Amino acid sequence: MNTLRSANMPSSLLPIRISDLRLIKGDRTVLAGVNLMIDKPGITVIMGPNGAGKTLLLRCLHGLIKPDQGQITLGQLRVAGSRDQQAMVFQQPVLLRRTALQNLAFAAPEIAKSEPQRLIQALESVHLADRAHQPARMLSGGEQQRLSLARALLSEPALLLLDEATASLDPASVLVIESLVKAQSAQGTKVILVSHDQGQARRLADDIVFMSDGRVAEQSPADQFFIAPQTPVAKAYLAGEILF
Amino acid sequence: MGALTEAFRLIITLDPDLFEILWLSIRVSLIALIISAVISLPLGTWLAITRFPGRKFCILLLNALMGIPPVVVGLLVYLLLSRSGPLGWLGLLYTPSAMIIAQVVLITPIIAALSNQVIENLHQEYSDTFYSLGVTGRRAVVAYLVDARYALTTCILAGFGRAIAEVGAVIIVGGNIDHLTRVMTTAIALETSKGNLTLALSLGTILLALSLLVNSLVIGVREYAAKRQYA
Fold this sequence. Notes:
By secondary structure, chain A is α/β, with parallel strands linked by helices. Chain A has helices at about 55-60, 100-105, 110-115, 115-125, 140-155, 170-185, 200-205, 220-225, 230-240, and strands at about 15-25, 30-40, 45, 70-75, 75-80, 85-90, 160-165, 190-195, 205-210, 215-220. Chain A has 9 helices and 10 strands.
C-alpha cells in the first residue's frame, strides 16, 4: 500500500521533542510538564494507568488539543506543520455514513480518482475487500477499526498514532491491526501507540514510554522495561497492581 | 354528509377549479421549499461547524424565528413589497411570487434551526476524524450535508408541511385572488366563510392527505436510514 516511502527509510518527523508540556483541565493539571524525546524509528508504546495522560499526550502530538504550555517539534516542524504527515486511529472508530469503499474514497479523493484500485488493495490489506459496498457502520467493531486503520494508512503517514486502537476487539482483528502496524513501521513510518495491553506492548514495542500522573515516569527499550522497570510505579503496574 | 359526498365527487372527477388551486398550492410551496433549502441548509451547517462571536445569538435568533406568527411575516413582506415599500417597484404584491417570498421567510428559520441541530450532533461525532484527515471548509460542509441527508430530508419535509399548511402570510401578500393567488388554505378560509362547505371540505381532505403523505415520508426516511445505519 505504501508506495512513496521506501522500506526502512526513517520517518521525516523524527526526532520528536516534547518539552515541558502542560495541560490544565478545569482545576486539574492533566499533563504536568511532560518532557520526552523520541528519536528512534519503530514502534513506541505509551503505557500507564488510567488518567496518566497518555491519550492527551497523543492528542497534543496530533494537534487535536493545544497545550497550555510547552513545545512539541517533530523533525524540523511544529505540530501544525506536520499535520498532513500524521495519521491517527482513535479508540472508537468514527466512520462516515457511507459504504466502506466510499469511506476510503472520502479520505483520499485523489487516490480514488487516479488509482481507485489502491482503495481495493487497502481494503484487502485489512481483509475487508468483500465488505467494500456495505455501509461502514454496519460492520462489526473490529471491522470498523480495521477500516479506520486502512483509511489512516492511505495518506502514507510519516507518523502513525494509535489510541488504544485494539481495545475490546476480537483477536482476529487485533492480529490484523498488529500485523499492519508492524509492516507499516518496517516501511519507515514512526508508530506511537497507546495501550493498556501488556501482551500487545511486548509483541509490538521497540521502546516504552511509561506515564504516571501527567508525567513521563520512565522511557526505556521494551526488553529492558519488561525485565527491569526502573520506577516503582512501573513495577507496580507490570505486577498488575491497581494504580490510581 | 351531503357536502362530504360532493367533496369526494369533486376530487374523483378531477374538478378543474379544485385542481387549479391544488396545483398552485404545491407549486408555490415547492418553489419556496427549494429556495429555502438552498439558503437554510448551508446556513444551518455553517452555524454548526464554525465558531465566531455572536454565533450563539444567531442560533437563538433562528430558534426564536421558528415560532414567528405567519401574519407578522405576511405583514413584513407586505410592507416590503407594497407600492411604497423598498421593493414595491418589482410589482410582486398579490402574485404567487409574493406568496413564495413569504413562505421562504417563514420556513427558512425552521429548516435552518433543525438542520443546525442535526449537523451540530454530527460535527461533535466527526470533528476529530475530519481534523485528522485534513477535511476542512467546503469539503467538510458538503460531507456533513451528504452524511446527514436522511435527517435533513426530514427537516425539509417539516418545512414543506409548514409551507403548504400556511394561511396567514399568503392571504396578506397574495390577496386570495381567484385563478391567480388562491391556494388551498386561503380557499378553505374563504369558502367556509361563504358557507360553501363542499369546496372547503374537498380542499381540506386533500390538505389532510398531503399532511399524512409528508408525515409518512418522514417516518419512512427515518426508518430506512436507521435500517441502513445511516441515521
